[in-house]
Design a protein that fits this description.
Number of strands: 0
Helix content: over 70%
CATH architecture of the domain at 1-76: Orthogonal Bundle
Structural class: mainly alpha
CATH class of the domain at 1-76: Mainly Alpha
Oligomer: single chain
Number of helices: 8
Length: 165
């Protein structure tokens, strides 16, 4: 395998994947970490072309890296505003938008890990339910159930106080 060509092709795709969740510096770090892990795993014989393409396998590794980095940020007990700035560089244009973003982010963190991941893949990566099912290795019906539960949680958490839907 030509690793230079692979890195040139996959590096930007992985960076875009991580940019949806993290600021540039952290997205760079995650991209490098993923490429290194793919290389090490491939060299140790853990890649099986019968189970899928190297690109799909790479995004599976990227998914794990994203989860690890997200958990590290959460465990560091940053206040929500600092967490927002770390993830998105604090680039919200006005106070109302910042409050809305923070409210949405807090709502995302109330979801289970798998629900948060599936919603992120659905919204940020624009993957189909079938692609998400293959990536997270759960049946498509389970993916649909997670999406439904997450949407219900969002409706409840994001509705205005005192409002009934």
């Amino acid at each position: 395998m030509d690793w230079d060509t692979y890195a040139e092709e996959m590096g930007p795709r992985l960076f875009r994947y991580f940019s949806a969740s993290f600021v540039r510096e952290l997205a760079d770090e995650c991209t490098q970490d993923t490429l290194l892990r793919v290389f090490q795993a491939y060299r140790s014989g853990r890649f099986d072309s019968q189970k899928g393409s190297i690109n799909m396998w790479s995004f599976g590794i990227a998914r794990n890296v994203r989860l690890e980095y997200s958990r590290q940020a959460l465990k560091s007990s940053l206040r929500s505003s600092e967490f927002s700035e770390q993830l998105h560089g604090g680039k919200t244009p006005d106070v109302d938008a910042r409050i809305d973003c923070q409210h949405m982010r807090r709502a995302m963190w109330t979801l289970s890990d798998i629900e948060r991941e599936i919603i992120s893949l659905l919204v940020d990566r624009d993957l189909s339910l079938a692609e998400i099912s293959a990536l997270v290795e759960v049946p498509i019906g389970t993916v649909k159930s997670h999406v439904h539960r997450a949407k219900e949680k969002f409706r409840e958490l994001l509705k205005p106080k005192g409002a009934s839907l």
